[in-house]
């Protein structure tokens, strides 16, 4: 049996001002680092047979903070990177709504047919998520695997685990920074056991969404 410990990276400077990152990077905030450290403390007795991170710096730093003093090597995989949002990257949500109203409407209300001319579609991201999960299914890996990735990618994973259609992407709740989801892979089937857990931070802080 393989257990996947799936984590979103910590809060970044751009998350705070609702600036779209996509494949661009923004540094973790002090809160982002602190929350990652708290999650690392919570998981300090969990032995990981492997750690896979998105190559994005914000994800890699989060993975390192969770790993702590352990020597488990961190491998990177481009398939679990955030959605490439093309010409939206670097803009705030407000700017995107003003400059690309039709695209934004499609993104929010028709994710199954949304297209970004110089970026990815949600279908593109779904395909690479399925490829990543197929590889895990076909591997002989057992134990616990830490996966540090991004908010939209985790939402796509939820669709797969729950059997939800792409058109219903936004019915899923927002994925908080450093939230932990645990998925069991056994006999070729994925079972979502824990979703978006934030119990490693104080209750008054755990409702903050970014």
From TrEMBL:
Enzyme Commission number: 3.1.3.-
Enzyme class: hydrolase
CDD domains from the UniProt entry: HP_PGM_like
Cross-referenced InterPro entries: His_Pase_superF_clade-1 (IPR013078), His_PPase_superfam (IPR029033), PG/BPGM_mutase_AS (IPR001345), PGM_Phosphatase (IPR050275)
GO-annotated molecular function: hydrolase activity
Keywords per UniProt: Glycolysis, Hydrolase, Isomerase
Superkingdom in the source lineage: Bacteria
Name under which the protein is recorded: Histidine phosphatase family protein
Lineage: Bacteria, Bacillati, Bacillota, Bacilli, Bacillales
């Amino acid at each position: 049996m393989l257990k996947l410990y799936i984590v979103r990276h910590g809060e970044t400077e751009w998350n705070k001002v609702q600036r779209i990152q996509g494949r661009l990077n923004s540094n973790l905030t002090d809160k982002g680092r602190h929350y990652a450290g708290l999650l690392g403390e919570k998981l300090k007795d969990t032995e990981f047979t492997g750690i896979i991170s998105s190559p994005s710096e914000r994800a890699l730093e989060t993975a390192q903070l969770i790993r702590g003093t352990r020597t488990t090597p961190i491998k990177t995989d481009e398939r679990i990177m955030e959605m490439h949002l093309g010409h939206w990257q670097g803009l705030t949500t407000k700017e995107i709504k003003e400059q690309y109203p039709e695209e934004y409407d499609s993104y929010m209300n028709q994710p199954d047919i949304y297209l970004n001319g110089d970026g990815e579609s949600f279908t593109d991201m779904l395909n690479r998520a399925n490829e990543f999960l197929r590889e895990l299914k076909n591997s002989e890996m057992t134990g616990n695997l830490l996966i540090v990735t991004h908010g939209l990618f985790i939402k796509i994973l939820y669709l797969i685990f729950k059997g939800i259609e792409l058109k219903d992407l936004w019915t899923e709740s927002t994925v908080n920074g450093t939230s932990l989801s645990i998925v069991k892979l056994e006999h070729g089937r994925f079972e979502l056991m824990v979703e978006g857990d934030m119990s490693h931070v104080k209750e008054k802080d755990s409702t903050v969404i970014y």
